[in-house]
Amino acid sequence: MSQSVLIRGGTVVNADCERRADVLCVDGLIAAVGENLTAQAPAGCQVVEAGGQYVLPGGIDPHTHMNFPFMGTRTVDDFYSGTSAALAGGTTSIIDFVIPDPQQPLMDAYQTWRGWAESAAADYGFHVAITWWDESVHRDMGTLVQQEGVNSFKHFMAYKNAIMCDDETLVNSFRRALELGAMPTVHAENGELVYLLQQEVLKMGITGPEGHPLSRPPMVEGEAANRAIAIADVLGVPIYIVHVSCQESADAIARARARGQRVYGEVLAGHLVIDDSVYRHPDFNVAAAHVMSPPFRAKPHQDALWRGLQSGQLHTTATDHCTFCAAQKAAGQGNFAKIPNGCGGVEERMAVIWDAGVNTGRLTPSEFVAITSANTAKLFNLYPRKGLIAVGADADLVVWDPAGSKTLSAKTHHSKNDFNVFEGRTVKGIASHTVSRGQLVWVDGDLRTVPGAGRYIKRPAFGPQFSASALRAQVQAPTPVER
Ligand code: URP
Ligand code: ZN
Ligand code: ZN
Ligand code: ZN
């Protein structure tokens, strides 16, 4: 039987324009966008009255860690609870990470994560981390791109003695990614400096969470961002920097872009609105709950991140949703370096950015769509299937009530975690309805997600940035002198 939803009377917002239109979804796809579609709705069509509300492409969070085994423990949210929380906040797709242990075959790790993700309630894809190098890694990158629809690889420049990638691996992997038409991405922090500073801060007798930001100052991020960008420039490959948290790395990206380099930056909702005072909270549990890397920064860095998004020098927004509860964070009592790194936010991202971005005039609704959905879809080659409201696109939509408000809290969120980094923040502008694969999964506070309803989305290689980069390399190719 055909399943259909008609969203009636709203203002449809895409990244390029907004207009009053109904949206008809049939069998998981957008079947029509236009005025007065009521007559076209099939019998039994569910109707959402969206008068006074916006209709946006569902959010895409390009950076989450569900069911992630990390720092001796595993995240509280699995793929079902994490994607359910996402849907409650208007995010209809995530790109999570397969993270092989050093020496673990990539394909083994990939199959393991695919198995874990079968419970997802929303669509998902994977970046695959390159944590070591040999010929099998070179080969498996090819298999992942050509057969499995992976078009991006992640490199952790931090987490020494764990998943950190040295320069040799960065260079080999970036070169291979270029050959395959896949986007290299980096967590930019100098892992050697972090390691050294952690020992030094501990030696000073600073063992609590306030030591965490001291061991990861902004220049540690700036150095790694500059290095990764320089390597990408020499090799002629585009590069995407995840969780840009400070002026130093935002500047590195802006400088490279001014030179004509294809560099893209991602910003986390948390880094836009939370500052580093949280680490001096007298309650260990509260301070430790904010330990993530890169850490929350002093306020001026937030302004730099907003300016980057406003000017188009930074491109996407994410959460790095990676939840650990108080009992797990307690592993770092007496040594901040042992606190599992990570915070939540997959449910709150859209509302926090709307409230702090659109309600303050920093962003237009269309610019909001660009940085919460369309730009990610374009960079990771999901566009126009995702990130756009148009006939034939996936029916992943959010009806956004600009007048609705709520106070964010661990008491009411849908993550399984016991802490919310946005606790007590009242936001205006919330998802009233979410449609995922053509199904109404969030209806005025009622969450109707189904485990396994999400699908793995294959992402083809050679997105538009790659054809242009290849052409540029050809045009600029050096030639020998004929003598
Ligand atoms: O602290 C964080 N961000 N935890 C997750 C792993 C990562 O660095 O992205
Ligand atoms: Zn990271
Ligand atoms: Zn992460
Ligand atoms: Zn309603």
Automatic annotation (TrEMBL):
Q: Does the keyword Metal-binding apply?
A: yes
In terms of superkingdom, the source organism counts as: Bacteria
Co-factor requirement:
Zn(2+)
Q: Which residues form the Amidohydrolase-related domain?
A: 54-421
**Record Gene3D superfamilies:** Metal-dependent hydrolases, Urease, subunit C, domain 1
Keywords tagged on the record: Hydrolase, Metal-binding
**Family annotation (SUPFAM superfamilies):** Composite domain of metallo-dependent hydrolases (SSF51338), Metallo-dependent hydrolases (SSF51556)
Q: Which InterPro entries match?
A: Amidohydro-rel (IPR006680), Hydantoinase/dihydroPyrase (IPR011778), Metal-dep_hydrolase_composite (IPR011059), Metal_Hydrolase (IPR032466), Metallo-dep_Hydrolases_sf (IPR050378)
Family, similarity comment: Belongs to the metallo-dependent hydrolases superfamily. Hydantoinase/dihydropyrimidinase family.
Q: What is this protein called?
A: Dihydropyrimidinase
Q: What is the lineage of its organism?
A: Bacteria, Pseudomonadati, Pseudomonadota, Gammaproteobacteria, Aeromonadales
